[in-house]
Amino acid sequence: MPANTATTTGPVWDWAAGHGPVTGALSATTGALALATTGAATGMPAGWALAAGAAGAIGHTVTSLRERLAARTISMRAASWLLGAGWTTWAITHGPLTWTALGSLATLGVGIGAAARSTLLHEEARELETIAAAERQVSRELSAERRAIAAEWVDRVQRVCGGITLRVLAVEMWPTGTGFTIDAELPPGGVTYERIAQASAQLSADARLPHGCTATASQGIDQGRVLIDVTTVNVLVGEIVYPTDYTPLSLHTGLPWGVRPDGREVLAYLREQCGLIVGPTGSGKTNFVHTILAGFARATDVLTWVIDLNAGSAGLPWIRPALATGQEGQAIRPGVDWLAATYEEASLMLDAAVRIGKHRKVAYQDLMARADTDLLPVSAQIPQIMIVIDEGAEILASSDPKMRKLAAKILEVIRLLRAMGIRTVLTALGATGSVLGNLMIRREAKARVCLTGGEVDGMDLSKVFPGARGLKVSQAPYKGAGFMGTPESPAGLFKSWRIKPKQIGDIVRATAALHPRLDDTSAKAAGPDYARRWDQARTAWMRDTLTTTDNPTATEETPGRPGLNLSAHRDERPPAPASTLDENAIDARFMALVDAEYGRTPAEPDTGAEDEPPPAGLNLSALRKDREDQGGPDWLPAAIEAIKAAGPDGMKPSAVADTVGRSRHGVRAVLKAAAERGELVYRDRGPHSVYVHPDHA
Q: What DSSP string runs through 298-360?
């Protein structure tokens, strides 16, 4: 058997444990016998044992009094010491090894053990009674407080709501200490909770609640009951930071969008519902969109697509950490799966969504039959697609012909693709009839949020929450505060979390492994528009956000030249700051990440997308030289020599621009013309296209 293998037989003794009734009595009797035997053999004076027993009795009495033990326990301990000392004194004198001495010692031990067990049970019962008494005292005090609250609000409702007399069944104090909930029974005669709900403002004023605090009534457990939530502390005024717990979420269990005044998270269930976010400028709507995207990023069964025609600002913070992998040396996936910042890209996205939804209806018939459901079973293998459309409600209400075409595609997605797991979240700047007048929006967008920011004009809460009573903009005049209502949670006050760009980057990195991939069936239906969404030509504008360029004012002059400081006049480009990323490295690493995550896509034919058109604006003479000189500018020979030196690998146009110190759009045009003249050879490799010298072609 190995040396480190241990076997145990029998009971395991815990030498650190204290004595119980049996071990205590055994220890006392064996100790007394050992002392008496030693004393008799050595001729020890018998009075010493009696003195030691008296000292032990006094010491235990003092410690027991400090511990506030019962008198029965104190008496038992003192008596045990004195009886043991008395037997020891007698045994030293008459001999401890006689049958009389041993029998009396055994009887004494049994008596001590029985007494110790009895006093131990008494002490436990006494301790439990003390705890119960303290709890009863707290309960009496709390009950008194609750009875006072109940009586106060019964009187208040009767006074304010036209004689409605409630019967309060319970008062629940919120764990956060910011308010309480009254559960009451309505009087007979057909009185409903709406009678109390519509008097919310009057009840709040009568209770002298602080600004931002409300008394709102909602449905109880049945139609004859009412719940009155009373907020006593204004939690809407300050910022509440987004939680740093980035644990996985699921669409089926709800995604958190904020907190109620009582501290409870309010969840949105979006498997079949669309979302509608209303908020004027300055209300915190953009921050709330990031909160929604954070929940989607944490969900293991959601793919997020974003449409933001305002330069893509809503989705860029969720893609930048992935674009910056060239600087950080880490490979992570973007926080959103597709971002559209132009009308053309948004059209491609919506068309792909429609194709996916229609193909899923046919391809997954067997799966839905096995699951016995008419809804596509959404999971990490077949994720739901959530399309967040910033200011999408305005697109639906626009009279612009292009926007009307885009609106028709949005409505098609909303109308046709619910069962196939494609839903939308739209935002709007105001709660007006022109924005929210579309029946499809009102019918499908059941998860609704209205961030007021104190704005009154264009904020008709009855259009966002029809049928809700007692909601006023003045109740939530703070940034990030407003009202939220879902079919599972009635409309009421809530506070959005505050999420900053640095935390967005942390979430993207922490949740990169949680993002699902579009199932193969849907990816095939989406086609090349989806597969090539990260191509360089379609994402170049995103990478531009990672560079820092000097933008001198129009009044600055180039040294040695009078007039405007035109880039066309500069012989040398200013050195890039230390923080500027190398675009070639970013392109290579980002495209490698895309290839690893989504697979390589075939290169597109040369359609001229690589070449940027000449800038619009003034017809500056400084720019005409390169265009009019058919032989090329004076820097072209140096560029050709650099390309020749690069060998068969060639050089990208951006690298040539860095070499000759010229603008990239001008360099691309000149290189294209040189390729047409046969001085260079263009190799189309998609995002990695290069120019090669004819000697190496």
A: HBTTEEEEEE-TTTTTTTGGGTHHHHTHHHH------SSSEEE-SHHHHHHHHHHHHHHHHHH
pLDDT at residue 225, rounded to an integer: 92
Q: Which residues pair with 182 in a beta bridge?
A: 171, 228
Q: Are the beta carbons of 166 and 153 closer than 8 angstroms?
A: yes
- Spatial neighbors of 197 by CB under 8 A, at least 6 apart, are 216, 217, 218, 469, 470
Any idea which fold 603-615+622-697 has? Answer: Arc Repressor Mutant, subunit A (1.10.10)
Distance CA(335)–CA(507), nearest Å, equals 8
Q: What does the alpha-carbon distance between residue 351 and residue 408 come to, in Å, rounded to a whole number?
A: 11
Residues 6+ apart with CB under 8 A from 321: 332, 334, 335, 504, 505, 508, 509
DSSP string, 669-683: HHHHHHHHTTSSEEE
pLDDT tens, residue by residue, 635-662: 888 888 888 888 888 888 888 888 887 8
Residues 6+ apart with CB under 8 A from 639: 656, 659, 660, 667, 670, 671
Domain boundaries, the chain: 21-132, 161-231, 251-531, 603-615+622-697
Neighbouring CB atoms inside 10 A of 103's CB total 10
For residue 478, give the nearest of 164, 313, 261 by alpha carbon: 261
CA–CA distance, 391 with 400 (Å, rounded to integer): 15
Distance CA 383, CA 522 (A): 10
Calculate the alpha carbon distances from 239 to 244, 360, 481 in Å.
15, 42, 10
Start-to-end CA span in the chain (Å)? 74
H or E stretch covering 232: none
Structure tokens at 418: 């619910």
Which residues lie closer than 8 Å to 580 by C-beta, 6 or more apart? 547, 548
Alpha carbons within 13 angstroms on the beta-carbon side of residue 666 total 22
User: What pTM, to 2 d.p., does this model score?
Assistant: 0.60
- HEC profile for 580-594? CCCHHHHHHHHHHHH
Letter string b/e over residues 152-167, b meaning 16 or more CB atoms within 10 A of that residue's CB: ebbebbeebbeebebe
| Three-state secondary structure of 516-536 | CCCCHHHHHHHCHHHHCCCCH
Torsional sign, CA 487, 491, 492, 495 = positive
Task: Please state, in angstroms and rounded to a whole number, the distance separating the CA atoms of residues 258 and 267.
Answer: 8
3-state secondary structure 197-219: HCCHHHHHHHCCCCCCCCEEEEE
| 363-404 pLDDT tens trace | 999 999 999 999 999 999 999 999 999 988 788 888 888 999
Fold topology of 251-531: Rossmann fold (3.40.50)
